[in-house]
Amino acid sequence: MQIGEVAGRTALTVDAIRFYEKRNLLPKAGRSASRFRLYTEDAIERIRFIRQMQGLGFSLREIGELIELRARKVESCKSVQRHPQPPPNAERRMERGRCRFPSFWRNLRFARM
């Protein structure tokens, strides 16, 4: 799908999507024969993940680290322990139902033990 459709489905601007791509938060989009960016459903899911992590107070740098850990499927305790701590208000937001990733925090806590 083209960038305009991705923007519509994610409530982001085209410029924001390009920005995420420049910051390597999104993989480089493929191109059509006419050089339009082409995105997959995976890009939509990645954008939703980025937005939700921003909502929890993570910086774009920290989100990039999370994405890298997810991509490598790191199981190492040392790698997880180097991961930034959740923001102080993250658990309160989860309790209020704003976060859709409660298992993310449970798994992160378990890995730190």
What would you note in describing this structure?
This protein is mostly helical and 113 residues long. The chain contains seven helices and two strands, in the order ααββααααα. The protein has a two-stranded antiparallel ribbon with strand order 1-2.
Topology:
Layout: H1 3-10, H2 14-22, E1 30-31, E2 37-38, H3 41-55, H4 60-72, H5 77-82, H6 90-95, H7 102-112
Antiparallel strand pairs: 1-2
CATH architecture: Orthogonal Bundle
Give the CA-based shape.
Answer: elongated
Q: How many distinct beta strands?
A: 2
The overall pLDDT average reads 79
Helix and strand pattern: HHEEHHHHH
> What value does the Rg take, in angstroms?
16 Å
Instruction: Give the structural class.
Output: mainly alpha
**Spatial arrangement of strands, main beta sheet:** 1-2
How many distinct helices?
A: 7
| Name of the level-1 CATH class | Mainly Alpha
Largest sheet: 2 strands, antiparallel
Which percent bin holds the helix content? 55-70%
Spans of 5+ residues with little confidence (pLDDT < 50)? none
CATH topology: Multidrug-efflux Transporter Regulator, Chain: A, Domain 2
Distance between the termini: 42 Å
Residue fraction in strands: under 5%
Number of domains: 1
